[in-house]
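Tutorial, part two.
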Amino acid sequence: MRGVIGFGGVSPTKGAERSNVGGQRGASPRAIRVGALVVAVALVLADSSLVVLALPDVLATFGASIARVAWVLIVFNLVLALAAVPAARLSRRVGARLVMLGGLWVLGLASAGCAVAGSIDQLIVARAVQAVGAAGVVGAALELFTEVLRDERRAARVWTVSGAAGAALGPAVGGVVTQLFSWRAVFVVQMPVVLVVLAGVWGIGVVAPLHTRSDRPRFAVNVALGLLSAALAAGLFLLVLMLVDGWQMSPISAALTVSVMPLVAIGSASVVSRVGSMLIRAAAGCVLVGGGLAALAELPRGVAGWTVMPQVLIGVGLALALSALTSASKTKRLTPRYAV
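Running the prediction step on this input gives:
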């Protein structure tokens, strides 16, 4: 009989149980895939702010104008906003896994291009290509989160928190790497991260493409997300420029100062997501972000402490707006057909 201890050995059932117990000690394939997707989204959102504290050094290296150097930050967020909708549509037509893998390769190769750029124009072009790959990553990630987690609400929540975490870590990591090494190292460190994510995403099953009219990405919502990201990136750049070049703070000190904003966004995300309707949250979030940016423009003194409250306003506003816009982007979406 099966499951009975025989002469000289353990039954197949016992062996299987021991095998299962041993397997539970390591990370499950599902956990690895979710972790890879979390890192992918965090990397893209970090990339929008990772370079902020490196810009003063970029300015010194190439001797370009402040307006020209600002495009290193602006072009990434602009192209990301413009490419997000086409990337989301493409992921539904040809498959999210394929778009994710392609986006990661483009992101990694463009990061190498940024690291070896010989002029400000080359750096700007490489950043634009980076953003195209980043759009593929974030556009496909939401679909893949849903496929792996089998829960749309949870997938949207994990996607949002991953992005907020990336935005929180971006300035700090960028500041530390720039101060310890150089601004080029900010792009070099992204390449091994991309390779690790590629390995984790490779095992995700294919989501069957959907071709229904109701499944099309919501253009207005994605544009709003892009504009919000661009406004925050521009404000963050000017704040860092003021801290480093104006107030003569070190990149690490400036990184700690500007980290208040994304940390507040993460801390308040679970609370504000339950406040009011999506429209109320989106409107209130945009008002708070705008008010915080205006307050940063009118600081009474050159002391870092005065930047805290405006950053708190922006952080809460970001949490409100992101939770509403992410939920709106998933509304009326069909449940994907999972591959077996």
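The radius of gyration is 22 Å. In part three we will examine how such features are distributed along the chain.
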